Amino acid sequence: MKTRILDASKIDPQQDPSEFFCSFYELEPMNLAQIRKHFYMSSEPMVTEVFNWPVRTPNWKDICLTLESIQQHSPSFYVIWGPETENAVVFEKEKQESEILHAEDNHKSDAPKDSIPDPEPSKAEEN
Question: Other CB atoms closer than 10 Å to residue 54's CB: what's the count?
């Protein structure tokens, strides 16, 4: 069984995902569809351990999704998602906060200003 260690933080952000796979797995030049097919049909057991993920690079999503796809459809290809980056929790939290702020901004711009209800008076003011 072959084991490959992938440090996601060291992937060249400008490298095409198919070029990455070909160099990392020592394959002949292929596109992503051919790479997936190659591993789907391979009977040689292969383990890829991924460390320091996720990364904020343009090619990471394609690399990550291709690894997942191969693992799901190949009987002999396994991905072990090892330790995330030290900032993985911060990375995910910032992403969620950004999505929430974006959604709130869109919601505020869609609502007419006079349709926002006044807050209810507090009980202290009523007495």
Answer: 19
Residue 87: what pLDDT?
A: 57
Question: In the structure encoding, which two tokens stand for residue 36, read together?
Answer: 């997936």
Amino acid at 42: S
Is residue 119 reached through a cis peptide bond, with omega within 30 degrees of 0 on the bond before it? no
pTM: 0.65
* Averaged pLDDT score across all residues of the chain: 83
**Other CB atoms within 10 Å distance of the CB of residue 56:** 10
User: Taking 90 as the threshold, does the pLDDT of residue 93 lie above it?
Assistant: no
Owner of token pair 């072959």:
2
Do 90 and 47 meet the contact criterion of CB atoms below 8 Å apart? no
Q: Please give the biggest Cα pair distance in the chain.
A: 81
Residue 77, SS3 per DSSP:
strand
What does the block give as tokens for 107? 């919601």
Q: What is the mean pLDDT of residues 20-35?
A: 97
Q: Pairing state of beta strands 2-7 and 77-81?
A: unpaired
Report percent pLDDT > 90 for the chain.
57
